[in-house]
Amino acid sequence: MNKRNDIYDISAELISEFGEIGSKKRTEAVEKAWEEYNAQILLDARKNAHLTQAELAARIGADKSYISRIERGLTVPSVATLYKIAAAMGLIVELKPL
């Protein structure tokens, strides 16, 4: 059995791939990661609410393609639209201090 005990430095990998913290490339990568994370949260919430994209879109007065773009991280909804989406799924948006 070949066992490896290498230590992997994720910070060095991130710097190599995206640059130092605060660099333009790193900032853009972090923003994209948050967009994709939030898109996945909305997708999971919609599925948990047992709604299709078309049903959710109808509830907020939008097109199915708009919901699809949000769930794929291609479109970031405005805060007002995020509140509409949450309410349409029977959820609330809560802001709490860290």
The rounded Rg comes to 18 Å
The main β sheet shows up as: none
The fourth-level CATH homologous superfamily is lambda repressor-like DNA-binding domains
Structure annotation, total helices: 5
Distance between the termini: 46 Å
What's the SSE pattern?
Answer: HHHHH
Shape: elongated
Q: Any idea what the CATH architecture is?
A: Orthogonal Bundle
Helix content: 55-70%
- Reported by name, the CATH topology is 434 Repressor (Amino-terminal Domain)
Which CATH class applies here? Mainly Alpha
User: How many distinct folded domains?
Assistant: 1
| SS elements, strand count | 0
Estimated structural class: mainly alpha
* Low confidence ranges: none
Q: Which percent range describes the beta-strand content?
A: under 5%
Could you describe the 3D structure shown?
By secondary structure, this protein is mostly helical. It has a single domain, classed as lambda repressor-like DNA-binding domains (434 Repressor (Amino-terminal Domain), Orthogonal Bundle), CATH 1.10.260.40. Helix content is 61%, strand content 0%. It contains five helices and no strands. It has helices at 10-18, 24-48, 53-60, 64-71, 79-88. Helix 3 (53-60) packs across helix 4 (64-71) and helix 3 (53-60) crosses helix 5. It starts with 9 loop residues before the first helix and ends in a 10-residue tail after the last helix. The model has no long low-confidence stretch (mean pLDDT 92).
